[in-house]
Write a structure and sequence with these properties.
With 507 residues, the protein is an alpha/beta fold. The protein folds into two domains: 5-236, 3-Layer(aba) Sandwich (Rossmann fold); 254-506, P-loop containing nucleotide triphosphate hydrolases (Rossmann fold), CATH 3.40.50.300. The chain has a six-stranded mixed sheet with strand order 6-7-8-3-9-10, with helices on both faces. Helix 5 packs across helix 6 (142-155) and helix 14 packs across helix 15. The structure holds adenosine-5'-triphosphate. Residues 7-239, 256-501 form the ABC transporter domain. This is ABC transporter ATP-binding protein. Keywords: ATP-binding, Nucleotide-binding, Repeat, Transport. It holds the Pfam family ABC_tran.
Length: 507
């Protein structure tokens, strides 16, 4: 039984121009286990999973599913033999119902009538999806949307499910619930391949772990006997620095002041931003905690001038910037790490050095007078690549060729390079590995010690607690409470974020 393999990857190699993304990778996943795949940014995890799901074809190597060699031309080939993937970015339609989202594209299986509904209801029960099947998806929270994605792949017959960083968007209680579902389903015979950078979680859920580094398998680990630190060191191949203890550098100088900020959207009864007041001082990190969809994105985009508030004022360093456009706000001293780097942070088809210019095109070192300074941009891009350890074959490759974490390092490097007074950091380390996370935190801390004000939005509660000097909680468009990061726990924060009573109090 021990050698009953659901998936076996033998000697997988995949080359891209200038990079060997996977080099002779071996992976053995037993039937009915949760198998984690860990590795630092750019190690080759996504490439390997895309190969297993038929989105990419390997240059060398064999894929076996349930002992049989297979060759996938596309994801439908993979799903036919029971391999499904739940992507990190949900691929669902907001205006369709839960049922429609699941059945759409797979009408051939159970039709669109009662039989399909019955099957979906059965799978919803199995995965703990409690939502009404006829409600439009837009009314569902993040955790339920994720369950819809899971039901969608199960509906198509998946018995082997790849979960790509599934916990990145969840609060601790939701993570516990997801893990409970995964354990239950594993016991019912499903197999999971779990990709994550959060090593504590990997140890909590995985039955076995494969670590890959720089495109190749470095070994397997037993979660019961391997510590998070040992795992991290296997991934990075060297010892990690110990985290520093920190001292407060908060001053009395207000850098960002937001007063009475409101935002209403046409047709929506409730204000998206409801009377927001906040101040971030020089040398201070103000963290904003909140479940996705409670107004954080809109707050940031209104401060950046990408949305127009319906009331209130925003000032930077005492100057009213409420009426300025986005570029003028950036020029006034705001650095911006956008939540979605591929939509608002980078031009994926352009080389790294051209991406260095984005938002900075009017300033040195990427422009001189009214001309763009390409040599200056290239030189500074190389500096960022070196200082932020961006793994790339060179600065002339397109941003699309970098792994997600390395794209993020480039964005963070750029946004800290313009000598900002205020940094708005939305999920600054989303998708980056532990080594890169430590590096980005260190850069943010250093800039803060030198007087930078930081508005930090993060779904990673350890990051919020570890970096912030103060944390405010956002719920349904309002700031509802303030927490002290030196005493608050991730569980307390999770309760405040969902508006539920702390577990202690409900006893
Ligand atoms: N389409 C592509 N073209 C060129 N190079 C690519 C392409 N996709 C990935 N790569 C390269 O392959 C390597 C592995 O990338 P991959 O995305 O698999 O890493 P990863 O382990 O998933 O990283 P992360 O944790 O940052 O998402 C990286 O060096 C990346 O730059």
């Amino acid at each position: 039984m021990a050698d009953d393999l659901a998936v076996e990857l033998v000697g997988i190699t995949k080359r891209f121009p200038g990079v060997v993304a996977n080099s002779d990778i071996h992976l053995r996943v037993r039937t009915s286990e949760v198998h984690a795949v860990c590795g630092e940014n750019g190690a080759g995890k996504s490439t390997l999973m895309k190969i297993l799901y038929g989105m990419l074809q390997p240059d060398e190597g064999t894929i076996k599913v349930n002992g049989e060699p297979v060759r996938f031309k596309n994801p439908s080939d993979a799903i036919k033999v029971g391999v499904g993937m739940v992507h990190q970015h949900f691929m669902l339609a907001d205006n369709l119902s839960v049922l429609e989202n699941i059945v759409l594209g797979a009408e051939g299986l159970y039709g669109i009538g009662a039989k399909a509904r019955k099957k979906v209801a059965e799978l919803a029960k199995r995965t703990g999806l409690n939502a009404d099947l006829d409600v439009a998806l837009e009314y569902l929270g993040v955790a339920d949307r994720q369950r819809v994605e899971i039901v969608k792949v199960l509906y198509r017959g998946a018995k082997i499910v790849i979960l790509d960083e599934p916990t990145a968007v969840l609060v601790p209680q939701e993570v516990d619930d997801l893990f409970e579902t995964v354990r239950q389903m594993r016991d019912d015979g499903f197999t999971f391949i779990f990709i994550s950078h959060k090593l504590d979680e990997v140890r909590a859920i995985a039955d076995s772990i494969t670590v890959i580094r720089r495109g190749t398998t470095v070994g397997t680990a037993d979660p019961k006997t391997t510590s998070s630190r040992q795992l991290a060191e296997m991934m990075v191949g060297s010892e990690l620095p110990s985290p520093e203890t920190r001292e407060s550098t908060v001053t009395d100088t207000a850098v960002l002041s937001v007063s009475g900020l409101r935002l209403s959207e046409p047709g929506s009864a409730r204000a998206v931003l409801d009377d927001i007041d906040l101040v971030v001082h020089s040398g201070e990190v103000l963290g904003i905690a909140g479940v996705e969809g409670n107004g954080q994105t809109e707050l940031v985009e209104t401060i950046m001038g990408m949305r127009k508030g319906t009331g209130g004022t925003i000032s930077l360093g005492g100057k009213d910037i409420t009426k300025l456009g986005t570029l003028a706000r950036r020029e006034a001293g705001i650095g911006y790490i956008a939540e979605d780097r591929t939509r608002h942070g980078l031009l994926l088809t352009q080389p790294l050095w051209a991406n260095r210019m984005l938002g900075y095109q009017t300033r040195e070192p990427v422009s001189k007078g009214q001309w763009l300074d390409i040599a200056g941009a290239k030189k500074d891009t190389q500096r960022i690549v070196d200082e932020y350890d961006v793994r790339t074959p060179g600065i002339d490759v397109a941003a699309a060729a970098l792994s997600g974490g390395n794209q993020q390092k480039l964005v963070v490097g750029r946004e800290l390079s313009g000598d900002p007074k205020l940094l708005i950091a939305s999920h600054p380390t989303r998708g980056v590995d532990v080594g890169a996370q430590a590096l980005i935190w260190e850069h943010i801390r250093q800039a803060r010690s030198a007087g930078l004000a930081v508005l930090l939005i993060s779904a990673d509660l350890d990051e919020l607690i570890g970096l912030s000097d103060r944390i405010v909680v956002m719920l349904r468009g309002r700031l509802v409470s303030e927490e002290d990061p030196s005493t608050v726990t991730a569980e307390d924060l999770g309760c405040a974020m969902t508006g539920s009573a702390p577990r202690e109090a409900t006893k």
